[in-house]
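Lab meeting, item 3. Inverse folding demo.
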């Protein structure tokens, strides 16, 4: 579409948005989504035009209206997890996907390294942990490590450790995303060597049924936090049409929101590890139900629901009209 025709088709709508004064969160979300869609189209086909500059400014105003410091409405807490966080997952689906790719790549490194180097697992997991696990395997209780501490102290320690790791993974993205990538590689290699160790002992399926009760949410949260770190780092590397400082502020704010949104997942994963994983003799169907439900939740909330929400808001805003 030529730029003149693009402007002609949308100028009336933009003028209406330019004079829009309401603080209704649903309308603001819909209009912001429409403007950002138009801005993305303009950046693609008219990157250096005045139209793109105008839409960039308009989108910035809507962004500031939505996120400016003001007295929050009573349902703001709910709207964050219902709309804002899923829309961030949609907006930053590429960094989240890249985080997944880095993690899987590291996972494979860990698996193959452990397979071809007998000492690799000890180097990654530590001699003490491997020796203890070997002793537990000899006793017929290979996952006894999850029973060593009382439930609540273990839950508290794990939750604290998880949140500290998440904060580090995110904030290290400030080093041009390199810090976050390194954190993802470390976690992926550790998981790969850890799982290969149990498979090499003939305990692969059992390890999945036990460890992934909490690991499904925990590993998902690591990957998503890595995506938030990439959002932060990429905002410095690739400012696009924004000034670098403005881009950094946006990336830091959005990345932090993703991290905050993941706190309940981190905490619940710690709860599962502290209170549930220790029951290594639970029925197989129950284990499969817990880890399967966790996986389905992540797929739905991070991928399916954000895409549905994006399409739904786009339809409501444009009444089904497509450019």
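The presenter then showed the designed sequence:
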């Amino acid at each position: 579409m030529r730029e003149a025709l693009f402007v002609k088709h949308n100028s009336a709508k933009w003028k209406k948005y330019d004079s829009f004064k309401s603080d209704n969160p649903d309308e603001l979300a819909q209009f912001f989504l429409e403007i950002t869609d138009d801005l993305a189209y303009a950046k693609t086909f008219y990157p250096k035009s005045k139209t793109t500059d105008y839409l960039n400014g308009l989108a910035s105003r809507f962004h500031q209206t939505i996120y400016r410091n003001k007295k929050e409405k009573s349902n703001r807490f709910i709207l964050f997890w219902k709309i804002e966080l899923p829309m961030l997952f949609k907006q930053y689906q590429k960094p989240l996907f890249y985080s997944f790719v880095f993690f899987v790549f590291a996972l494979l490194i860990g698996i193959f390294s452990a397979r071809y180097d007998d000492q690799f697992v000890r180097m990654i997991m530590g001699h003490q942990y491997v020796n203890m696990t070997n002793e537990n395997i000899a006793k017929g209780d290979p996952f006894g490590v999850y029973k060593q501490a009382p439930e609540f102290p273990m839950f508290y320690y794990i939750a604290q450790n998880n949140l500290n790791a998440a904060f580090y993974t995110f904030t290290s993205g400030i080093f041009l995303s390199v810090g976050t990538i390194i954190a993802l590689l470390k976690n992926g290699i550790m998981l790969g060597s850890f799982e290969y160790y149990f498979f090499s002992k003939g305990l692969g399926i059992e390890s999945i049924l036990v460890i992934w009760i909490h690991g499904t949410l925990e590993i998902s949260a690591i990957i998503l936090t890595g995506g938030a770190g990439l959002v932060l780092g990429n905002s410095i590397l690739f400012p696009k049409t924004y000034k670098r400082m403005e881009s950094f502020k946006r990336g830091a704010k959005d990345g932090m929101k993703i991290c905050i949104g993941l706190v309940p997942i981190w905490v619940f994963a710690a709860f599962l590890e502290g209170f549930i994983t220790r029951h290594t003799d639970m029925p197989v169907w129950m284990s499969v139900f817990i880890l399967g439900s966790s996986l389905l939740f992540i797929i739905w909330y991070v991928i399916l629901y954000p895409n549905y929400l994006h399409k739904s808001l786009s339809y409501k805003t444009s009444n089904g009209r497509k450019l």
